[in-house]
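Data availability (excerpt). The following record was deposited with the supplementary files.
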Amino acid sequence: MKRGDLVILVSVLLLAGLLYLPLLLSGSGRKAEILVEGKVTESIDLLAVTGEYTISVPGSEILVRPGEIGYLCSDCPNEDCVRFGMLSRPGSTASCIPNHTMIRILAGKDTDGPDAVTY
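Predicted structure:
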């Protein structure tokens, strides 16, 4: 490995780190949505949550903690939704197909606009 190769490698890693930095810092305004039958039934600002509480949706219990949310228990056969664990990162989703429920975490203020994937 030559010196020029090392410089290119370090430059690429630095650029990748700089591009990833906004994702790490996008915690401001992070909110979670709970959908039942495809319709938003709850919208929660995860950074404003101070204590731990549960939300009942048809067939499931959802646990909300400061900065994270996830399925606590479910009456579906395999409880795959519970195995998703607690969600805390923007863009994370968990769903319970038999109960027609879903949790998703959005980030920032402009969460309804187009992004690079959907535009």
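Summary of structural features: The mean pLDDT is 84.
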